[in-house]
Write a structure and sequence with these properties.
By secondary structure, the chain is an alpha/beta fold. It is 30% helix and 17% strand. It is built from 25 helices and 29 strands. It is globular and about 75 Å long. The N and C termini lie far apart (60 Å). 59% of the residues are buried. The chain binds iron/sulfur cluster (SF4).
Amino acid sequence: MTDGARSATPSGRTPREVATHCPYCALQCAMTLREEDGRVSVLPRQFPTNRGGLCQKGWTSAELLTHPERLTTPLLRDPASGKLRPASWDAALERVTTGIGEVQWRHGRDAVAVFGGGGLTNEKAYALGRFARVTLRTRHIDYNGRFCMSSAAAAGMRAFGVDRGLPFPLSDLGQADTLLLVGANPAETMPPLVRWLTELRQRGGKLIVVDPRATATARQADLHLQPLPGTDLAVANALLHIALTEGYVDSDYVATRTTGFADVRRTVAGWWPARAEALSGVPVADLEATVHALGTAERAIILTARGAEQHAKGVDTVTGFVNLALALGLPGRPGSGYGCLTGQGNGQGGREHGQKADQLPGYRRIDDPAARSHVAQVWGVPADELPGPGVPAYQLLDSLGTVDGPRALLVFGSNPVVSAPRATRIENRLRDLDLLVVADFLLSETAALADVVLPTAQWAEEDGTMTNLEGRVLRRRALRPPPTGVRTDLAILTDLATRMKGRAPSYRLVHRKGPLLTADSEAGSAADREREARAADPRTVFAELRRASAGGLADYAGISWERIDAADGVFWPCPREDGPDSPRLFADGFATPDGRARFHPVEHRPAAEEVCAQYPLYFTTGRVLAQYQSGTQTRRVAALRQAAPDAFVELHPDLADRLGVTDGEPVRVLSRRGEFRAPARLSPAIRPDTVFAPFHWGGAARANSVTNDAVDPVSGMPEFKICAVRVERVAS
Ligand code: SF4
């Protein structure tokens, strides 16, 4: 089924149904939306990934379509009162274009920055990158996916020459004999995925989880390794050390399909199991049992997620597990391999098509002359007019409003006031801007600071494509048009480009000779309006995206909406419409110049901030089942608010005893960067030396007020998962 009317209901009206996918996480569960008498309900839909399953977030996702807090008119900050006031689209967009013009006139093109999101469709991510590079001609664009899985992306690129979250279909998990899950808690983040873990265990397979907390997923595991936060890399090196000494390394595979093992062998020689136990707290016996389970399995899979990745050494930590997978000969072997569980809905596609500071569409490098030439040709601009690489998300946000940083920021689909590390500092940076523009459908904490807020369409009101955690390109289908007063992101970008046309020398404004809008057309003409409408049409944008990605690593050239409709999605790379797609990678070779995967020696190093007398506890952040990301959406859904109404601070009962804290009592968590408050939740699931809090809430309960802004030198990933704190009773 794609979409269409169904038989009449008792009310006499004909209900409408559309087959689409959930608006939230990267599992992109299939669902059917049904509109009946104006009311939209969610029905589960069979699909190879979720097999009819949905979590509470998916079930309740339609509630926001008619939420009373939904934005349906642009807002402009009134200089006299300092308050946001309703405004016309014309006034709001005029304020944006005038503001951008003034900032660029005074401070140069790079004084305007763009910040995107991992939830935007492929079409929107592509259009946003093109808008930044061609219209604004700024090098400053990055997105919140940098905070999500950029470390795994960088590790995958350097080992395999390509970054696709799972290089095999999700269903392979159910067929594995051993699955090692590092820093992932799908039982709370992606509940329908747990069916595959259950299937694995029912077949007699082993699930091993590495996590500092005894999470809902870890409690289902056959073996739970509970390392001290920040020591996963030592664990990975010790596992490879054991694999070597116990004879589990696949020498043929290493010799014929990889390079660089000798250096890795030397590095891990220093990670004898007792040393790793002393550092991480994971018993030697558990390390040995893990290697035995992986080494004797016919089909074994190693997966990492945010727990391993969100560190200032996240790329090296992931690389440690990739090294282990390669040494065991897993990548490319049927039913085996290494993969990363992507988090955000379009975290995968969002990083493939130009939102990242250093990338052009098709996962091309922006500093590669051939890539620039290809994309510039598609965009109809000279290659030397394309800006160079910008800076990663945190560096960008931290430079806002400073002498050398951007003075204006356009935000699409992101809420960095809650989701950025050291969030108080970032909030202040945003306040220092000359112009902050936020496109969103709810007044997020970031939108509340904006000078201009542009109300956007929701997922059920737009067409497009998403790329799930398997690299499978899916169709998002509109059930109905946006409400009056609301525009799609594509329409906003197109309108802005048109308005900027010819205003000032610093504007490129529209694609000079590009296929969608041309600078030589007169603004306001019928032909111009027609071109605008075409430019805002997601199908037209996807057609251009296909051409721009052709020949790149993430090649979508052979993927059409019709082809996606005819199957259960299409896996990239897919260079030809009449050729196959790529559900499984690496069977015949890797995407490196010599076709071999590359080992990289990686050494454990301490966290950027270790505990001390003043801040004696480790702090780590994560997610809860009923909330999503910065909570802008899920905190407003009644059923989710009821299930997870507030933030909390998880403490081990022994620690609580030492601090004199009782269950439910408000506590204050302090680091060198700030503090937040939330009720204590006592649980033996956490180590006594570690404190946990979810990051979905803002205001006084904002966990990111204390997190560390140290970043990984390769990926730019901030160290969300470990910093030093102390916990105090609020009463004290
Ligand atoms: S697991 Fe993810 S995609 Fe599936 S219903 Fe829940 S939030 Fe939506």
